[in-house]
Specification:
single chain, Glutaredoxin
Length: 692
């Protein structure tokens, strides 16, 4: 059979269906026009290249000529890559969830020709199973319902659309941000905390990097040791679990159990990037060498597997499986496989360390083990009679041996798409890792990725695209995370071009994305293509940081860097609109709560002024970056010239031609300037930090 029209798409997920007998369209005006012209309902399939059950339904149903015949006769079929079109996914997840009470991928939705949902679900099996009807039965029923009850289907779709639109408007109430919201949000997160295993909730258990970042910030503000304990226990338990790839580095998407042992094996850029920041910041807060080692482990995985070595930029994901009958076999081990490659001494130690004993953890194949840390080296030393140093060396040697052996297996697919929002997160994370760990390579990888995105995906009239190589969509999430990365790059390099570009983008966001109800829409008002059938102002972390909250943080930071109060006013309006209602949701409002903290407490703004070639300038700047304080802002002014952004209070203290100095201000107060890096570090950690 010849390839269908998806063969022309850039998305790997869509191209994966090019051989199918279904007459697929991508999300396009053409598909909707055909549905209206032929008066057919739309079958919408939303999935992702890393999604196991998406591949299952592809093979079981969409590859089946009999199923394809039903679809082609009764529907206009539209397939969407949720990573490439998160704006489409967000709306239809919400709509199908309102009908069925469930969501996820694959998302299967039945739409009227104008795009409104009248029925939907997720995965449907080829025969009645799992308490679900067969896909053929669902297709024929949906087609018959639309044919025989067209007016009713249209009415149901319209009513659902109106209900969701009304809910979007009523979900928020304009109020005033006040400190009580921080306590409300913190206590909500605390109630979800799993004291035994770390993390939040039970099974399945997802990482919540934004919540951990908020708790670190609150710890820095309040010195409440219980908040730091929640963060550290979570990070340590995750680091010991199978959700952490003990051999190849990085983290899988989530754990199927409460103890972090058995993961869903796909690895997402959007998880690993913020977790890198978490581990780097937790290391700075505690000095824990274990947390530092895991931070390095994440960064090296991202640099080695999720980075384009030729042009720069971070790839989107690594798949879980290598085929439909597979269940994480690349990442798991049988005892026989481990014995075949390890020396007897290495196996004896790793069998204790990683619980390579008895039945494995994979219920689909009990011979296969997920590697997780079961016993620490000192315990193994006591059990085996070896010295602690010998045990540590055997663990390290054995892990290297397993890594070499694993590299010879078929490697799961890596989606090489460069998503700008996730790259923004990754660039920021690598710059944070550079600050915390001191590895110049991490800074260089981040700046190279940022420069590529600016070159290939950005123009000053429209902002940045979502995926390099495409022209649409251009999402709020992309603009916000890219702007945040630009400000991080400005702090690290002192290059004002990054600051200017961030200003350009946020001016565009205020112009094109602002919603009069308060906050920013996820797409610009002039977004081309099929009409998205419901407004969407993204304010909750799901699972990535809420774009409105990131935009608010960027605007607050810009207002301080360039002395522009209008940025702050827009951000404050956003928080006043959404934070009072969302704060009780805690875990899912963590980035919004971080922005509330930023609004209510002026951060330390460190300004280093000095000649760019003077090593004393570099020393002060490096200390300003490396000293941990969650709420700090750093500016490097290399010559004090007019036009360079510099706080008004600092400008009055600067004497042209003076030796390099650092100035620390918070609100309207400034500490005495210093030329001493050690004194600067002490000032950053204490000045203007009021416990609240």
């Amino acid at each position: 059979m010849s390839a269908n029209r998806l063969s022309r798409e850039s998305s790997a997920y869509l191209r994966g269906a090019e051989h199918q007998p279904v007459d697929w369209y991508s999300w396009s005006t053409e598909a909707f026009e055909r549905a209206k012209r032929e008066d057919k309902p739309i079958l919408l399939d939303i999935g992702a290249v890393w999604c196991h059950w998406c591949h299952v339904i592809d093979q079981e149903s969409y590859d089946d000529p009999d199923v394809a015949k039903i679809i082609n006769e009764h529907f206009v079929a539209v397939k969407v890559d949720r990573d490439a079109r998160p704006d489409v996914d967000a709306r239809y997840q919400q709509a199908v969830g309102a009908i069925t009470g469930q969501g996820g991928w694959p998302l299967t939705a039945f739409l009227t020709p104008d795009g409104k949902v009248f029925y939907g679900g997720t995965y449907f099996p080829p025969q009645d199973a799992y308490g679900r009807p067969s896909f053929k039965r669902v297709l024929l029923s949906a087609a018959a319902y639309y044919r025989d009850n067209k007016d009713e289907a249209a009415k149901a779709g319209n009513e659902l659309h109106q209900k969701l639109a009304a809910a979007s408007l009523s979900a928020t109430t304009t109020g005033r941000v006040d400190p009580s919201l921080l306590n409300i949000g913190t206590e909500s997160i605390r109630r979800m905390y799993d004291a035994a295993n770390g993390g939040f909730g039970t099974a399945p258990k997802f990482p919540h990097p934004s919540a951990l970042e908020f708790l670190l910030r609150r710890y820095g503000r309040t010195r409440d040791d219980t908040l730091l304990e929640m963060v550290i226990r979570t990070l340590e338990k995750m680091g010991r679990g199978g959700v952490h790839d003990q051999v190849g580095g990085g983290f899988h998407r989530y754990a199927t159990d409460a103890r972090w042992i058995v993961p869903h094996f796909e690895k997402m850029l959007y998880d690993n990037a913020p977790l890198l920041s978490n581990y780097a910041h937790a290391y700075q807060a505690t000095g824990s060498q274990n947390l530092r080692a895991i931070a390095v482990d994440i960064a090296e995985f991202m640099a080695g597997v999720l980075y384009d070595p030729a042009r720069g930029g971070f790839y989107g994901s690594q798949d879980a499986d290598v085929g439909l009958g597979d269940d994480g076999s690349y990442f798991t081990w049988s005892i026989e496989e481990a014995k075949a490659v390890l020396s007897a001494d290495e196996f004896a130690v790793l069998a204790e360390h990683f619980h390579l004993q008895g039945h494995g953890e994979m219920h689909t194949d009990p011979r296969r083990h997920v590697l997780f840390v079961d016993k620490d080296p000192d315990v193994i030393a006591a059990v085996t009679g070896r010295s602690a140093d010998d045990v540590l060396q055997l663990i390290e040697n054995g892990k290297r041996t397993l890594a070499v052996a694993r590299s010879k297996r078929q490697v799961p697919y890596t989606d090489s798409a460069i998503y700008v929002n996730w790259n923004g997160m990754a660039i920021s994370a690598f710059l944070e890792a550079f600050k915390a760990l001191g590895h110049d390579r991490y800074r260089d990888l981040a700046i190279r990725a940022l420069d590529r995105i600016l070159e290939e995906g950005y123009d000053s009239d429209h902002g940045c695209v979502h995926v390099l190589g495409s022209s649409e969509p251009r999402l709020l999430d992309d603009q916000a995370h890219l702007s945040q990365a630009l400000l991080d790059a400005y702090e690290v390099t002192g290059q004002s071009r990054y600051l200017r570009t961030a200003q350009e983008i946020m001016a565009l966001v205020i112009r094109d994305y602002w919603d009069d109800a308060g906050g920013f829409s996820d797409v610009p008002r002039s977004a081309p293509g099929p009409t998205l059938v419901a407004p969407h102002v993204p304010v909750q972390d799901a699972p990535t940081p809420a774009p409105n909250a990131v935009a608010a943080l960027v605007l607050f930071r810009l207002s301080r860097m360039v002395n522009a109060r209008e940025y702050r006013q827009v951000a404050e309006r956003t928080l006043n609109r959404h934070a009072p209602t969302l704060a009780p949701h805690g875990l899912y409002a963590s980035t919004l709560l971080t922005a509330v903290d930023d609004l209510l407490h002026e951060p330390a703004h460190i300004t280093v002024v000095g000649a760019p070639t003077d090593p004393r300038t570099a020393a002060l700047h490096r200390i300003a970056l490396a000293t941990y304080r969650p709420d700090k802002v750093v500016s490097l002014v290399t010559d004090g010239a007019d036009g360079e952004p510099i706080p008004d209070a600092v400008r009055a203290m600067v004497t042209p031609g003076d030796e390099p100095k650092a100035y620390v201000c918070a609100g309207t107060a400034c500490a005495l300037p210093t030329t001493d890096p050690t004194r600067l570090a002490e000032t950053i950690q204490t000045f203007g930090l009021h416990v609240s």
